[in-house]
Amino acid sequence: MGSLSHSASEGTTLRVEGTNVIRVPFGVRQPRRRRPERPERWATLVLPFQFIGGPTPTPPQAA
Asked: How far apart are CA 8 and CA 23, in angstroms?
């Protein structure tokens, strides 16, 4: 607490002792809305690159 990085992350001012300097963080970005929580379990969807039972593509021929 009291460090420049802490005050910048919190968006508060920081007074430098022994001087007349007050550091004010500019550009502290706050998200407009909260990111939704990640679900505990993810569903996996497998999409085939070709139709099942369809012809297999021919490999490219060497020149």
From this structure: 9
Q: How many residues are listed for the chain in this entry?
A: 63
The secondary structure element, H or E, covering residue 4 is: helix 4-10
| Percent of residues, the chain, with pLDDT higher than 70 | 44
Residue 12, amino acid: T
Domain definitions of the chain by residue range: 1-27
CA atoms lying within 13 Å on the CB side of residue 10:
11
Q: What digits encode the pLDDT tens for the residues 4-25? A: 566 556 656 666 677 777 666 6
The whole-model pTM stands at 0.20
Element (H or E) spanning 7, and its range?
Answer: helix 4-10
Query: What is the CA 4 to chain-centroid distance, rounded?
Result: 23
